[in-house]
Amino acid sequence: MNADPAEGTVPMDSYLREFIQLVPPPSEPHANGNWKQLESDLGLTFPDDYKQYITAYGGGTLCALFEIGSPFGLESHYKKGNRSCFI
């Protein structure tokens, strides 16, 4: 499972597949982007299931209980050279 989920080459996690059946994702998820470029910029690799979730849903609040953030749209924070911010 090392391929890019945004390209559809990673088998979707079975829990996420079941979750999508229960809670359909939005037609246009907020804050999607290029995972390979982001990981290269940050020098890290995000977990496949997190990338699959963000690709399907984007970032935001789920059921007014869980805040699941997307790393996209935060370029102004991490491209300043200040790596001390939390994503």
Account of the 3D structure:
By secondary structure, this protein is mainly alpha-helical. The protein has one domain. It has four helices and two strands. Strand 1 (60-62) and strand 2 form a beta hairpin. The longest helix has 10 residues, at 48-57.
Summarize the model shown.
With 87 residues, the chain is mainly α. It has four helices and two strands; from the N terminus they run αααββα. It has one domain.
Poorly predicted regions: 1-5
Order of helices and strands: HHHEEH
In spatial order, strands of the major sheet run 1-2
Instruction: Indicate the multimeric state.
Output: single chain
Which sheet architecture does the biggest sheet show?
2 strands, antiparallel
Mean pLDDT: 77
Number of strands: 2
Strand content: 5-15%
Task: Give keywords.
87 residues, mainly alpha, two-stranded antiparallel sheet, 7% strand, globular, disordered N terminus
List the SSEs and their pairings:
Elements: H1 14-22, H2 35-42, H3 48-57, E1 60-62, E2 66-68, H4 75-78
Antiparallel strand pairs: 1-2
